[in-house]
């Protein structure tokens, strides 16, 4: 886990590393991804340093979806993904909460944008009920 001092996104927020800034509020910064998987790929990050979404205080979340919505509308793309990963096994590369806006250009197929597999686990209704009961009991 990266520390606040070495976090690349914290350095971008502080202006120590330049970025292609799109939106900035008191709590979020949105900017172009410098390793895009599609034209228009950008990031929305909270200014508060938290490694994973569950570490981010609720009062720091209010501008995230509105910023993503503004970017989605402004991009002009009809199809897109919003992606947020937590932990290395879930493909998180920077230990600072961030959301990807990834356009899926019409007709691009798997040549641009996010390519996702969806390996359905084939759980029984009983297994789903058990998972539901466990989660619901903790909420």
From TrEMBL:
Transmembrane segments: none annotated. Pfam families: HIT. It comes from the Eukaryota. One of its GO terms (molecular function) is catalytic activity. One of its GO terms (biological process) is nucleotide metabolic process. Coiled coil: none annotated. A motif (Histidine triad motif) lies at residues 96-100. PROSITE patterns: HIT_2 (PS51084). The active site is at residue 98. Residues 8-113 form the HIT domain. PANTHER family: ADENOSINE 5'-MONOPHOSPHORAMIDASE HNT1 (PTHR46648:SF1), HIT FAMILY PROTEIN 1 (PTHR46648). This is HIT domain-containing protein.
């Amino acid at each position: 886990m990266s520390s606040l001092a070495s976090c690349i996104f914290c350095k971008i927020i502080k202006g120590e590393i330049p970025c292609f800034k799109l939106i900035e509020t008191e709590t979020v910064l949105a900017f172009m991804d410098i390793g895009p998987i599609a034209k228009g790929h950008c990031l929305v990050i909270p200014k508060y340093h938290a490694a994973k979404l569950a570490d981010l205080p609720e009062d720091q979340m209010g501008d995230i979806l509105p910023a993503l919505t503004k970017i989605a509308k402004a991009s002009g793309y009809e199809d897109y993904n919003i992606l947020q990963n937590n932990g290395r096994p879930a493909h998180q590369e920077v230990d600072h909460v961030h959301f990807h806006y990834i356009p899926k250009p019409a007709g691009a197929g798997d040549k641009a944008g996010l390519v996702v597999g969806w390996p359905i686990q084939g759980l029984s209704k009983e297994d789903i009920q058990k998972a539901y009961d466990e989660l619901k009991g903790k909420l």
